[in-house]
Specification:
Layout: H1 3-24, E1 30-35, E2 42-51, E3 54-62, E4 89-96, E5 103-110, E6 115-124, E7 129-136, E8 139-147
Antiparallel strand pairs: 1-2, 1-8, 2-3, 3-4, 4-5, 5-6, 6-7, 7-8
């Protein structure tokens, strides 16, 4: 076997494996830190899971200094009313958009005001960060969450 050919083949195989690993990380599934818009500090830890192609995200920890770990969603108006913040489902129903690295069609809850918004999740930076867009019609806001290693 030609040494140059073997080297090129090995190099191509390694590049393919690295690409597959990077693509595997381009998913919202995992643990994330939401970031406070004002302080730029981690606000909460959220675990996003997938079942039958549908994403769910739950708060697992409140990270702000002095946060009451026993707080409840008093502003919520649906089935989450008065439920504990820890374990609270804030992401419901998002699905991958035609095989692209974008998840849409779900809803996200802001537990501070009890409102839900249409949702768009877009992993960026090789899946290490994620743009989380919540909107009502054309008006919305995008936060960047950071993947927990």
């Amino acid at each position: 076997m030609n040494t140059a050919f073997a080297f090129k083949t090995s190099l191509a195989l390694a590049a393919g494996l690295l690409s597959a690993a990077a693509w595997a990380n381009m998913t919202p599934i995992g643990t994330w830190h939401s970031i406070d818009d004002k302080t730029q500090q981690p606000r909460s830890a959220i675990v996003i899971t997938e079942a039958q192609g549908v994403l769910t995200g739950r708060i697992t920890q409140l990270l702000r200094e002095g946060a009451d770990q026993n707080a409840r969603c008093t502003a919520c108006t649906d089935d989450r009313k008065d439920q504990p913040m820890i374990g609270l489902e804030i992401i419901r129903g998002a699905r991958q958009d035609d095989g692209r690295a974008v998840w849409v069609g779900g809803r996200i809850l802001d537990p501070e005001n009890g409102r839900t918004y249409s949702l768009r999740l877009t992993p960026i930076d090789g899946g290490q960060r994620m743009e989380v867009r919540g909107a009502i019609g054309p008006i919305g806001r995008t936060q960047t969450w950071v993947r927990v290693q």
